[in-house]
## 1
Amino acid sequence: MGEFSGVDCAVGWSVWLARRFTALDPRPALAGYVERCAARPAFQRSLPAPGEKLIYSRDFYEVPDV
């Protein structure tokens, strides 16, 4: 226990991406967890290269009124 696992990959990336869709600031412990995941070399390699076309080009997306 206490080691990095596949669950951390899925949850860490999901929380990292969710920041683009929610205006709520994550709890300090959750923010720290995401920062630790994002600091891992494999996580950084998974991100687009500088100048590469992005799927999500803005920092935040409002939820549309439906």
## 2
Amino acid sequence: MAAPLDGLSLHPARSVWIELWNGKYALGWDDHGMPVFKFRWAPGGLATRRQLRAMHMCPGGHEPYARLVWRKGKRWAWLYRLDLAKPSRTASPAQLNALDRAMRARRTCGQCHQEQTYCIPTSDGRCLDCIDAASYPYAA
């Protein structure tokens, strides 16, 4: 797989002023028509998917506007415009109940059928107490 920024020099001396959607300018690079910004160089009004999620928003079906790069271009993330982002959907009561039942099933031991305060390991299906009791049958 080719690197996402093949042939693009991220050296600060190679940066150019890029005109943004709001008429302002920011230092970055142009990669086949898509703006690329270095970490901490991204202008205001753009956010990654994780930042949108923290604001309870989503891209709303819009394509990424730019790319954010760090670690000499080895790591990158899409940047989305905040003015086009939409609020995230809220879960219905039925969905929340289904999630509660699923988490309860993940915390229930397959051997003693007791609900624990942690998720049961899927590799064994037993709680830690049952695993310890099977390992040391004469300990008690």
## 3
Amino acid sequence: MFDQILDIAALVCLVLAALLSAAAGVGLLRFTDSLSRLHAATKPQIFGLLLVIAAVAIDERSFGVLLSLVPVFVFQALTAPTAAHMVGRAAYRTGQLDGDTILVDELGPAVERATARAAEQDREQARAAAARDRELDALDALNESDQPPQV
């Protein structure tokens, strides 16, 4: 009797994981911009993986199997949101998003400040390179004038 209950619990976990995967697929197809699609892809993925791991652990009825699957979940839980964050930032910076769906743009001022700071650093580096080139040209001219003419 207890084995049947565990089998049903594992089946429920797998069915819920499948529903989450289907919802993620529908979200990827239906949402209009990259940020919304990332949300639809990453949120169900982590919870679905947790449900699949729970189903496998329940089906195997082994604590060792559960312990061997925990690192899979931990690494996925650490890498999926980080990757989604980086893809989201790239999509934001390249303008591949729907401006109508963003209610508050908290990243806009920070991106403008970073862009202005990078442009100022580029200008400073260009000025320093130009000054270095002028110094080198002056040294070359000085060295040429100090040398006796060659016959």
